[in-house]
């Protein structure tokens, strides 16, 4: 082979080897959440809804500005009037052109209330973006932790299978040599089969967790990093403090309050038809052959016009009543949101408190069962323990480690859950909400 070709081939093989040997880039919990905020369809959909609502503000503000209309027309006109008789008919080629400019001077504050309503709706939509980002971030944390949980549980069942396989081999060897009996072999074989079934179930659970990760975050999990429990250090001192923070900061509550403000503006705007409207109108026209008269007509007008509807079949009054009920609906929706937020804070607080208290006892249980397992293995070798005792300690040790693993990840999730119920999950992760989300203000929420 040519020397240059051999050199290129070796370089290619070495490069490929280095690529394969390099570990996959690790993805931390914060990085996964940040990616989710920027790419998750739920957040993007809410973001676009906010942007669409922003456009309604400009639509409402258009009522403050002049309107200019151009009207052009050409055609045939038949006129029967005293000026065209005795022919009783006269056909002319009619031509029209008119330019009109109008400026609203007073409309019963309909435009003002429309602007207030759309501004509040845009504010509500902005807080909804923040709320969706917080909720979706918590979902991302859940699926992230669940993958790590399932990976660790799979490792535990693999370790348990190795132990049962070792015990089965030991018992079978004894039975084959005439020291043991077949009953012990069958019993050990049954436990080995159960351990294999548990391993299969945990593999399926891990695949489900990876599928959920793909659904929420957008890619399959690769090289996840074990998170710390530093988030628990940011928890308030008492549940009452947590509730106060939630009232002050939670975007869902601010969105509901802004929705109520929009409903109030809509209610006030519904009263506009009960008042007159006043407009300044400027117009100029140039027409040809109008009303059966040959020739060119020019007009210029400057008018202030008042229009006042005197009877509308009760529709305006019904609209006022409708918006009043809608306003009350929005108010009670805000009250319901406030109750739900308090309920979520208390649930998250109780969950964190309970799991934290349990965790130390579960850790003690793992240590005790591990010591018991080692002692039983030694005693079984000396004939001081039965096979059933040995197998039971293996399962007890597995159960203890599974319970501790679940509690460990449950505690981390509870810390982030508590932060989300207070509306400060992204703040805890040191991440920014989407630009379309309104920054949480310092407005106090009154009882």
What does this structure look like?
There is one protein chain. The radius of gyration is 38 Å and the shape is elongated. It has helices at residues 3-21, 29-39, 41-61, 110-176, 182-217, 239-249, 251-269, 315-381, 387-421, 425-429, and strands at residues 67-79, 90-106, 277-290, 293-307. The termini are far apart. Residues 5-23 and 439-447 have low confidence and may be disordered. The protein contains 10 helices and 4 strands; from the N terminus they run αααββααααββααα. A hairpin with a 2-residue loop joins strand 3 (277-290) and strand 4. Strands 1-2-3-4 form a 4-stranded antiparallel β-sheet, with no helix packed on it. Helix 3 (41-61) packs antiparallel against helix 4 (110-176) and helix 4 (110-176) runs antiparallel to helix 5 (182-217). The chain is α+β, with helices and mostly antiparallel strands.
């Amino acid at each position: 082979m040519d020397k240059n070709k051999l050199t290129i081939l070796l370089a290619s093989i070495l490069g490929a080897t280095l690529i394969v040997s390099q570990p996959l880039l690790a993805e931390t919990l914060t990085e996964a959440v940040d990616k989710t905020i920027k790419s998750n369809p739920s957040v993007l959909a809410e973001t676009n809804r906010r942007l669409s609502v922003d456009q309604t503000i400009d639509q409402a503000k258009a009522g403050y500005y002049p309107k200019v209309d151009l009207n052009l027309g050409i055609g045939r006109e038949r006129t029967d009037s005293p000026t065209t008789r005795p022919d009783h008919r006269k056909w002319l080629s009619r031509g029209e052109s008119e330019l009109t400019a109008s400026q609203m001077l007073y409309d019963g504050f309909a435009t003002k209330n429309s602007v207030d309503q759309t501004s509040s709706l845009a504010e509500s939509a902005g807080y909804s973006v923040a709320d969706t980002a917080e909720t979706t971030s918590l979902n991302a944390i859940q699926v992230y932790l669940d993958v790590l949980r399932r990976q660790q549980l799979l490792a535990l069942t693999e370790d348990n299978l190795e132990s049962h396989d070792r015990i089965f081999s030991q018992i079978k060897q004894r039975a084959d040599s005439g020291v043991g009996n077949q009953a012990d072999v069958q019993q050990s074989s049954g436990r080995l089969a159960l351990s294999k079934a548990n391993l299969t179930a945990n593999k399926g659970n891990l695949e489900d967790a990876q599928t959920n990760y793909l659904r929420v975050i957008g890619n399959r999990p690769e090289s996840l990093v074990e998170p710390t429990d530093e988030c628990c250090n940011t928890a308030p001192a008492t549940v009452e403090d947590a509730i106060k923070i939630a009232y002050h900061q939670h975007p869902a509550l601010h969105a509901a309050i802004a929705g109520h403000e929009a409903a109030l503006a809509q209610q006030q705007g519904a009263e506009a038809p009960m008042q007159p409207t006043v407009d300044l109108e400027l117009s100029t026209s140039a027409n040809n052959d109008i009303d059966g008269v040959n020739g060119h007509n020019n007009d210029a007008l400057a008018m202030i016009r008042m229009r006042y509807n005197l009877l509308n079949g009760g529709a305006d009054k019904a609209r006022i009543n409708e918006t009043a009920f809608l306003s009350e609906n929005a108010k009670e929706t805000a009250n319901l949101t406030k109750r739900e937020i308090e309920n979520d804070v208390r649930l998250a607080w109780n969950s964190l408190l309970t799991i934290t208290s349990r965790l130390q006892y579960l850790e003690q249980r793992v240590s005790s069962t591990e010591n018991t397992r080692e002692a039983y293995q030694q005693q079984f070798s000396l004939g001081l323990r039965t096979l059933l005792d040995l197998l039971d300690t293996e399962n007890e040790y597995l159960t203890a480690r599974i319970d501790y693993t679940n509690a460990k990840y449950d505690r981390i999730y509870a810390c982030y859950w508590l932060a989300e119920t207070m509306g400060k999950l992204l703040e805890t992760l040191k991440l920014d909400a989407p630009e379309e989300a309104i920054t949480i203000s310092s407005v106090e929420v009154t009882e």
